[in-house]
Design brief:
By secondary structure, this protein is α+β, with helices and mostly antiparallel strands. It has two domains: 3-44, no CATH class; 52-270, Roll (Carbonic Anhydrase II), CATH 3.10.200. Helix content is 19%, strand content 31%. The protein has helices at residues 3-13, 19-29, 32-44, 59-62, 68-71, 242-251; strands spanning 79-80, 86-88, 95-97, 101-107, 112-116, 121-124, 127-137, 143-144, 151-158, 164-173, 194-201, 213-219, 227-234, 238-240, 268-270. The strands form two sheets. Strands 2, 3, 4, 5, 6, 7, 9, 10, 11, 12, 13, 14 and 15 form a 13-stranded mixed sheet that branches. It has a two-stranded parallel ribbon with strand order 1-8. It is globular. The structure holds zinc ion (ZN). Belongs to the alpha-carbonic anhydrase family. It catalyses: hydrogencarbonate + H(+) = CO2 + H2O. It comes from Streptomyces hainanensis. Residues 46-272 form the Alpha-carbonic anhydrase domain.
């Protein structure tokens, strides 16, 4: 049942019933199969968010499956301190080999995610990872010397074993040219909304020209916060216009997990 229908029923009954009674009426009126569906849905997707009682500092308490969000020692995102990163030879730079892609966009309630057609990949220390999807956060999740940029883009890749490598691109608010002009009008604004981009477009336009990169071992930045993710964050940002930032903020007001302790991990800076 949509929340719109529930709201309509509530307002229709508002004169004669309290909220609690309305809720009970709706529950008992639901068919057994609808209730079973709701229970299945609850098991499959525990509600989490970026603020309040279901926000980042509570994720670990929302489900046993989210334990890593609280106990993990190699969590993402992290701050990228320009002075403390350990320099590495350019041999350690990843190779980015993106091809023109088509994409299916979906608003999943946390981000706008673009599931892309196959054929694009990165190579990390000799291992190829195939690009699966890209998505956005506002403001940025990674910080550089404690400073956020307006947004951050994540390109999520998987190797043959299913292990993940994510390339993070910081998006700096800047008036003028933006690579996102064609994409932005397609972003689905409603949760569950979808849009298809059937004409192949060039993903490399979303990357900065400079490929200096931070590398570290981290996690998913959303529940279940699974570790074992290889992170590559490009040092140079790309531009996003103030209007595009505002438009995205109207879809998701805030969608960044706070930075996590580096603990005993090594943060490497690779000049490409
Ligand atoms: Zn992300």
């Amino acid at each position: 049942m949509s929340s719109r229908v529930i709201r309509a029923r509530m307002s229709a009954l508002a004169g004669v019933a309290t909220l609690a009674v309305v809720t009970a009426t709706l529950t008992s009126a639901a068919s057994p199969s609808a209730e079973a569906d709701q229970q299945t849905e609850k098991r499959e997707s525990v509600h989490w968010s970026y603020h309040g009682r279901t926000g980042p500092d509570r994720w670990a308490t929302l489900s046993e499956d989210f334990a890593a969000c609280g106990e993990g020692r190699e969590q993402s995102p992290v701050d990228l301190p320009t002075d403390a990163a350990i320099g590495a030879s350019s041999d350690a730079a990843i190779t980015i080999d993106y091809r023109p892609v088509t994409a299916d966009l979906v608003n999943n309630g946390h981000t706008v995610q673009a599931n892309v057609s196959p054929g694009s990949r990165i190579v990390v220390d000799g291992t190829p990872y195939e690009l699966q999807q890209f998505h956005f956060h506002l403001p940025s999740e990674h910080t550089e010397d404690g400073e956020h940029t307006a947004m951050e883009m994540h390109f999520v890749h998987a190797d043959a074993a299913g292990d993940l490598a994510v390339v993070g691109v910081l998006m700096e608010r800047e008036a003028g040219e933006s690579a996102f002009t064609d994409l932005w009008p397609n972003l689905p604004t409603e949760e569950g909304g979808e849009a298809a981009i059937d004409e192949a477009f060039d993903l490399t336009e979303f990357l900065p020209e400079g490929r200096d990169q931070y590398r570290y071992d981290g996690s998913l930045t959303t529940p279940p916060c699974t570790e074992g993710v290889r992170w590559i964050v490009l040092d140079d940002p790309v531009s996003v216009t103030p209007g595009q930032v505002t438009a995205y903020r109207h879809i998701f007001h805030k969608s960044n997990r706070p930075t996590q302790p580096l603990n005993d991990r090594v943060l490497t800076f690779v000049e490409d």
